[in-house]
Amino acid sequence: MTPDDATSATRDGTDRTSENAERRGPERRRRGLRRRLIGRWGGSIARSLAVRVVGLSSIWAAIALVAAGILISALYRQAAEDGFAALLEAQLYNLVNSVGIDDAGVLTGSPNLGDLQYMQPESGWYWEVLPASRDTRGRLSSPSLGYSAIPSEPLREVPFDVSYQRSYPMKGLAGEDLQVLETEVVLDDENRAARFRVMGNRSELAEDINAFDRQLAAYLGAVAAGTVIVNAAVILLGLRPLRTVRQSLARIRDGRAERLEGEFPTEIAPLAAEMNALIGNNRRIVERARTQVGNLAHSLKTPIAVLTNEADKLGGESGRLVGEQALAMRRQVQHYLDRARMAAQTESVVFRTPVAPVAERLVRVIGKLNPHLKVAFDTNEADDLIFSGERQDLEEILGNLLENAGKWARSEICLVMRPAGPERFEAIVEDDGPGLSEAERKLALKRGRRLDEKTPGSGLGLSIVSDLAQEYQGSLRLETARLGGLAAIVSLPRLNGVDALT
Amino acid sequence: MRILVVEDDENLLRQLSEALTTAGYVVDQASDGEEAHFLGDTEPYDAIILDVGLPVMDGISVLERWRRDQRNMPVLILTARDRWSDKVAGIDAGADDYVTKPFHIEEVLARVRALIRRAAGHASSELECGPLRLDTRTARVTVNGSPLKLTSHEFRLLDYLMHHQGSVVSRTELIEHLYDQDFDRDSNTIEVFVGRLRKKIGVDLIETIRGQGYRLHHDA
Question: What is the ipTM metric for this complex?
């Protein structure tokens, strides 16, 4: 079974299981989905730190402010009512002091309580002095009251207290609420007495208290709103480093960064450090696993070599069978080595590989492997070139091209590297060998990775180069060399000067 | 031609040795780095096939030590690692060529032949000395175009002389390169084989230089 068969088999397998699940209960699944969605939405709200903190702090702010409001309102009402009662009492004393009685028992005096409200009719502020004994006559009243009368509560309902005062609510002339304060005073030695009544506007008091309550509520409401906003702002600001961490992690997952970078607040810094350690550890584990896969794959190569050679010697049907199996094993080994390499590649971060040192090493090696050849490398333009990729891949590309050229060249190989636009460079490997015809060139690029080394030199290794170049969005093309043989031209990405410095 | 094969896998070592012996080489074997280093350091091999992954001392270290001690015999390394960085490391350590595992024996034989030829300064795979021709790829010998039937001992002797034609080859050198390390060096077999070769070739190409050895050459 080829690796492709293996993967497609697994894919089919998974598809089948999910199909079964679908057939088993679409209804149940749908209901479950809805519940899950609601649950997830509610769950994510409840799990949100910001929502929790803002919610809790808002509840607390509301409770505290309502309690404060009730207390302040109560205190104010108390104070206002005390003041109202004290005012009435003071007016009553004033009234008592400014009223007398003449010898005929007629009430005299023109009290002025110093408040204009007693002058305005139906203002709700009244006073009145009435005879309270048989031989007393006359009636005095505030201009606001005039000849109208405010009824009294019967004495048995509201008796006088120890200081001979009584107070009760009553309806006023215009329907307003009144508070009446009454006392009876003996005015002369003949025990002639008068009843003194002072009435204050309770509706005004209530209105005053209500106005205060409304203002208070407005203030406290503003404070509550401010508290919630400030809390929300603080928590969102405080949680911002977490978002930075999340973005950093996403960058790491995308392969754009290797570790969490940046300054984190004291509370988050240990978390970031732990995460970096975890990422490092993870990377080491993956690296170790990859190395082990590599070691396993490489260690299989010797037994496969033994099998291959034994099969060659054996010959016949069984020899052919063993040889085929050995070849299949070899393909698998190569397949997994390639996959490990590609996995490593996608994970790696930013590459910059100076081109010239790699090329020089390879030219030296090819020169040594082919002592009869002159291997020329023009370093003029290669010095500043930086390949935007992994060193090993550049080595594979140049190594295979040079090796191939070495296989076919008669006396000379030439490697030229030069920039091709701001983002690419070209490596050109030429030889003076027989070259390839148009048709052969096409075939050379198509032919799969050389696995059969029974006929040394039959493979060209060019398809490997082509595959690698494509991984870097590059290309390989074959032309006729100036030297007469084949010219292999591979185009690869490079970092330009500015990038190279950073 | 005497070759040292260093490989820790028993089966592969056996296969390589058998194939090389069949191809007419004299083969010594080593299965760990230390033994390999000792043999390569003391015996005059015409080529060494060296596995990179060896117990005790790895192949690259063995190779580096030989080269440090000015041992310049051609070395072909066998490696499972087929990345260029591995190949470059091997060549930089002093290898002359490499074969990646898994391989067919023929490939190794071809590389070894080429290495020995190159070391002796021959570019072509066909060695020539007057009417005498030796094709290193097919191990066929012809005189004036007609094939010569040689025993394996005779072939080895002629092969060595052809590779070193023009220079004087001592009897000790021949023994060292044509027999493995257990061979009794006092025997007179070399003289016997040289005599037989002269008779088979018919043309007098092998010159005896008294007190020094033999020289294969052709006066044009």
Answer: 0.76
